[in-house]
Amino acid sequence: MDLTQDKADAKYLITGYTADCVMVNNEPHYKSLIIAPNTLISSWEVNDISQLNEKNLAQITRQQPEIVLIGTGQQLQLPDPKMIAYFAHHQIGLEAMNTQAACRTFGILAAEARKVMAGIIISND
């Protein structure tokens, strides 16, 4: 699905997605990634929500966003309660949702100039 951005002063935008790919600035990404309006980490070593841990989430918390979206694939999967507590400890909001919803929500929040980051999990199965 292609996404249309209204007005976003962002360096990086999610411009589309499929089941196995996220388009960032019209470039396909076939591996999990972390995106913020001005940051792209295209080598996030998470292939399943069960792999979330403090080490691979530190790349996100270091940026101090106000909210983090986790795109969990085609189906919503909830993260381990320890990971929810990890974000709460850092005073960062966390929302897990399917990847389609995470991509759309990221675009909306980025257009509103919110401090948003998204961790999009793309399974390598």
Q: Helical proportion?
A: 10-25%
Query: Mean pLDDT score, rounded?
Result: 92
Terminal Cα span: 21 Å
Q: Could you describe the largest sheet, including whether it forms a barrel?
A: 5 strands, mixed
Structural class: alpha/beta
Strand proportion: 25-35%
SSE topology:
Layout: E1 14-18, E2 21-24, E3 27-29, E4 33-36, E5 39-41, H1 54-61, E6 67-71, H2 81-89, E7 93-97, H3 99-111, E8 116-120
Structural write-up:
- The chain has 3 helices and 8 strands.
- A hairpin with a 2-residue loop joins strand 4 (33-36) and strand 5.
- The protein has 125 residues and is an alpha/beta fold.
- 24% of the residues lie in helices and 27% in strands.
- A 5-stranded mixed beta sheet has the order 5-4-8-6-7.
- The relative contact order is 0.25.
